[in-house]
Every structure is written in structure tokens, then in C-alpha cells.
Amino acid sequence: MTCMDTVVDIRAADIGERERKGGIGQFFTSSMVADFMASMFGPLPQTVRILDAGAGYGMLTTAFVARCCAAGDVRAIEATLYEIDGQVLDVLNAAMRDCGRLCAASNIRFSFTIHATDFIHEMSTRLTEGLFGSAPPVFDAAIVNPPYRKIGVDSRERKSLHAAGIDTGNLYTAFIALIYRLLAPDGQLVAITPRSFCNGPYFRSFRKDILKRMELRRIHVFESRRAAFREDNVLQENIIFHAAKGNRQPHEIIISASSGKEGGEITQAVLPFAEVVHPEDAEKFIRIPSAVDHAAARETLSGLGESLASLGITVSTGPVVDFRFRESLRRKPEPGTAPLLYPCHFNGGTVCWPKLDARKPNAIVDNAKTRSWLVPSGTYLLTKRFSAKEERRRLVACVFDPGRVKAEWVGFENHLNYFHENGGGLEPALAAGLFAFLNSTVVDQYFRGFSGHTQVNATDLRALPYPGRNTLQTIGRELPAFDLAQNEIDQIVGRHIHAG
User: Fold this and answer.
1) What is the pLDDT of residues 346-357, one digit of tens each?
2) Is the pTM of this model over 0.70?
3) CB 159 within 8 A of CB 112
4) How far is CA 442 from the centre of its chain?
5) What is the rounded CA–CA span in Å between residue 289 and residue 283?
6) How far apart are CA 331 and CA 322, in angstroms?
7) Which of 184, 397, 407, 411 would staple 320 via disulfide (CB 3.0–4.6 Å)?
């Protein structure tokens, strides 16, 4: 019996029910990814207590068992699995019985327990009750592909987690936070998760918690967002990480990368941990330079000494949430309205307004109800908060020129970020310099090194290092137009920023 034999049995069990799996937030792990994850564990104790929460068809535990049998470094495996999807339990049981036979052939004792219960509710309760209830179990290792979807603020899951001292709004970080609380000292965790927890304000509490309780040893990234769950057509940037229970981060961390294709090359580098999580960073962003270009971009931008705060510039999210002002929106401009800008108004580096063939409105009524959500006309730098799949750059910036759009007030919709000074416009050369800098390839590569999703938050933009004000103005004055080719932007920016 081999791991691949079990894979064939599992595939025969109809694993193509995407809507059902999406509804519970879970997508099952391929055999290739499972085998790779199992290979990431370090030395294990002679008797290893392994947890697989959200086990699905048992692919991860099967791969872990196969790894232990091949390595011959353990004498007993005690597997605990959680799975609430009743439609996969028979296959999961069969997979664990196959694991028992594989272990018997390798003289390894194997036992397993499958819990068809809610892992979050059960473990949150046991962690909360402490001495007055059933003590939580302890594990030496955990391997997991947790479900991921948002958790409602008033849901039972959120309340259970809050009682256990866990503050997070997504299932996958909830699973991970519970799992590492159940690990023994030096217990190991290997997990495949969305990369989104690595930056942004939404996962700030989780980042601080995991970095306080777990020592990150390796992070693996995929070069394609489709790589990890190709069969389920999941467009999600995922990582695999290996960590151990402890409160002192290592001096160095392994960063590896692969295409995600069968037999694809895996590249890796050993980096100072301080380059991945900057010691002075209050946000605890986890930056992942997954390619040579990313590393070069990091070196270049590390020589820049300014922040938006030191430049006296602020970036904010567009304040107009359109569905809250439906009665005030207008398809066409008319007397008594102000321009309302969306990402669809971006055109070759500047704003093209109005855009009457777009599905979005072009104007908002300017009255007492809406005025506080508008900004005075001026020169602003705008960026899209979400980049489309076909766009080359993660950061997409354009300039709002009041000379092209005549208005006293203007509305920026919530899918935009806008750069301003004290709530008003920027000096034109400064705005042009920021435009070139943020649209440069080196900044895009740097940004991808710490942002693993297509959303561009104002917090992420504040975290970037920037050139000095004079340098930005010089770049802006050298910019002959806003619709330049990428290499022309890169040449102008490159003349003024250098590796430190």
C-alpha cells in the first residue's frame, strides 16, 4: 500500500463538488502538495501525536504517515482528525485504515480518532474551561489545510474564539490560532493557507499572536495563484509555512518557491529573519521576497529614508461607499452634482471623466448629506484598491488633474485610495513624482514581496519606503507625460533611486 494508492481511491470518490466545498470554505489538497508539506517536518519524537483539523479525505495525514514510514524515525503515530463534512467520512475512515496497514508493514504502531464535530467550537470551549472542564489535547505535530471564509461578527464561531482569547475574522486563521495553542513545546505545524494574513490591518492581531507563540522556520510560495488548488479553479495566492512552538524567532528563515507543477523546480534561499519581519515594524508584516527581482527591489528601496508621514502626505481610502448614496448617484453630470470617480475612470495615467458608456455612475449630488464625503478639487494621486488579473502591476496609480475635470468638489469611491496633504490636493510635481514612483517596476516587485493578495490597502501604501520630497518633485518635473511605456517610467525613476 502506497500513498499514491490511497490518492487513486480518494479521486474515485468524486471530489469535484466545488459549490458544496466552497460553501463550507474548504478545498482539498492535491497529493503533490500533501507530499511536499509532509516533507517539511523536522525530526519528530518516537511517539508522535498528529493533528489534522479539517481533514477532508485524509490526504495530509496519509502523506504524513507515508513520510514517517519512509524515514523510519518514529515508532508510533497517534492521529486525531476533525471533519464535519459527512459526505467524506467513509472515505476518510478507509484512508486511515490504509494508513494502519502501511504502518504495520513498517513496524509502526498506528491509531486514529475521527471527530465529526466543529473543531473551532470544541477546542475554543476546552481552552476556555481550563481546570473546570475537559482539558484540551496536546499534539507534537499538526498538518492542515484549513477552510477559509469570513466569520460573522455575531456568529457562534466568533463568540467561541473571543472567549478563548482569539481575535480573528476568518476561518483559516481561527483554525491556525487554535492549533498552535494545542501544540506541545517545540511542536511543529505545517499549514497551507492564503497568503493574505501576511499584511494588512485585517490580520494584524493574528500576526502578532502567531509571531509571539510560534517560531517561523520556512515559508514556501507558489509562482501562480492557481497552483495549489488547480482542480478547484481557486484563484487564491497561497503559501505553505513550517513553524515550531516557541517564543524566540530564528536568526534565519528559509524562503522557497515553485511553480506548483508536478516535478517543477524548487528554489530556496536562507534570509535573515529581520528581513522578513522587520523588528521595528509595529504592523508585523511578513514580507516574502520570493524571487531574485523581489530581493533586488528590496535592496533598492531599503536605501530610501522617507515615509509618507515624514513627507507630510496622507493616503486615505475613498470615502464614498456608493450603495449608501443610491438616491444621490447620477449616470450623467447635471447641475448640482460633483464628479464621482471609480477605477473605471483610470485612463493612461490620468482620469477620463465622465465615462458615459461605463456601468458606474459618473456623478453624485452635492448637498448637505453628501458634502462631508467629498473632497475639495485639487491635484490628487489615486490608486486602485483592487488590481484586475490582466493588469501587469499590482499597484496602479493615476493623477487627478483639476484642469481636466472642472469642479469645486469631487467624490472618490471606496475602491480607490487617494494621496493628499491635510485633506487637500498635492503640489502637481509632487503628485507626478509619486505617480512615476508607484507605477515603477521596482516598487511593484517590492510590493509583491510583502503583499500576497490583489487588494492594495492604504496601510500597505503607508508601509512603503519613499524617496525624499525633492527627489519626487524632480522625478515629476522630468515626466513628459502620464501615458509613458513601462520602460520609460522605469528609466526616469531609476536615475533617482539607487541601492543603499
Assistant:
1) 998 999 999 999
2) no
3) no
4) 20
5) 18
6) 13
7) 411
Cβ atoms within 10 Å of 160's Cβ, excluding its own: 22
Dihedral angle sign, alpha carbons of residues 61, 64, 65, 66: positive
Residue intervals of the chain classified under CATH 3.40.50.150 are 3-290
Q: Has residue 333 got a pLDDT over 90?
A: yes
CA distance 318 to 327: 19
Interval 132-165: pLDDT, tens: 667 899 999 999 999 988 998 888 889 999 989 9
Higher pLDDT: 459 or 307? It is 307
**What single-letter amino acid sits at 139?**
F
Would you say 226 and 234 are in contact if contact means Cβ atoms under 8 Å apart? yes
pLDDT at 44: 97
Grid cell locating 51: 493533528
CATH number of the 308-494 domain: 3.90.220.20
Looking at 3.40.50.1980, 3.40.720.10, 3.40.50.150, 3.30.200.20, the CATH number of the domain 3-290 comes to 3.40.50.150
Domain with CATH 3.90.220.20 in the chain: 308-494
The CB density around residue 86, as the number of other CB atoms within 10 Å, is 8
CB atoms within 10 A of CB 128: 16
Specify the residue for cell string 484563484. Answer: 235
Residue 291 pLDDT: 58
Report the DSSP pairing between strands 238-245 and 183-194.
Answer: antiparallel
Question: What's the 3-state SS for the chain?
Answer: CCHHHHHHHHHCCCCCCHHHHHHCCCCCCCHHHHHHHHHCCCCCCCEEEEEEECCCCCHHHHHHHHHHHHHCCCCEEEEEEECCCHHHHHHHHHHHHHHHHHHHHCCCEEEEEEECCCHHHHHHHHHHHHHHCCCCCCEEEEEECCCCCECCCCCHHHHHHHHCCCCCCEHHHHHHHHHHHCEEEEEEEEEEEEHHHHCCHHHHHHHHHHHHHEEEEEEEEECCCCCCCHHHCCCCCEEEEEEEECCCCCCEEEEEEECCCCCCCEEEEEEEHHHHCCCCCCCCCCCCCCCHHHHHHHHHHHCCCECHHHHCCEEEECCECHHHHHHHEECCCCCCEEEEECHHHEECCEECCCCCCCCCCCEEECCCCCHHHCEECCCEEEEECECCCCCCCCCCEEEECCCCCCCCEEEEECCEEEEEECCECCCHHHHHHHHHHHCCHHHHHHHHHHCCCCECCHHHHHHCCECCHHHHHHHHHHCCCCCCCHHHHHHHHHCCCCCC
Cβ neighbours for 368, distance < 8 A, ≥ 6 positions apart:
none
- Give the CA count within 13 Å in the CB-facing half-sphere of 118: 14
Closest by CA position to 329, among listed 370, 363, 375: 363
